[in-house]
């Protein structure tokens, strides 16, 4: 597979894109707006990879209640699935790779 180049010979493949963005300062995390403290807790647990059953156990609520919170988060944050919620949690700040 051949590497595409810009005029002047500069590469704009994946490596070049990563190098470009890696050198930029990180944006300040923005907490998701319009979610409750309990929804923030669910978002954090989703980002940690917990299942609905595990979240219910940790939060001492029913699995149905967890699913209701997840549904509200999907709607409020305009996310299509749990994966997008995880991305939002990492981008927004409630979760970081070290926590």
Q: Approximately how much beta-strand content do the residues carry? A: under 5%
Q: How many helix segments?
A: 5
What's the overall average pLDDT, rounded?
80
Following the backbone from N to C, one meets helices and strands in this order, namely HHHHH
From the N-terminal CA to the C-terminal CA, the straight-line distance is 39 Å
Shape summary: elongated
Regions with pLDDT < 50 over 5+ consecutive residues? none
Structural class estimated from helices and strands = mainly alpha
Rg of Cα set: 18 Å
Tally of DSSP β-strands: 0
**Approximate helicity band:** 40-55%
Give a quick account of the main beta sheet: strands, pairing sense, barrel closure.
none
Describe this protein's structure.
Helix 2 crosses helix 4 and helix 2 crosses helix 5. The chain is 54% helix and 0% strand. The protein has 99 residues and is an all-alpha fold. It is elongated, with a radius of gyration of 18 Å.
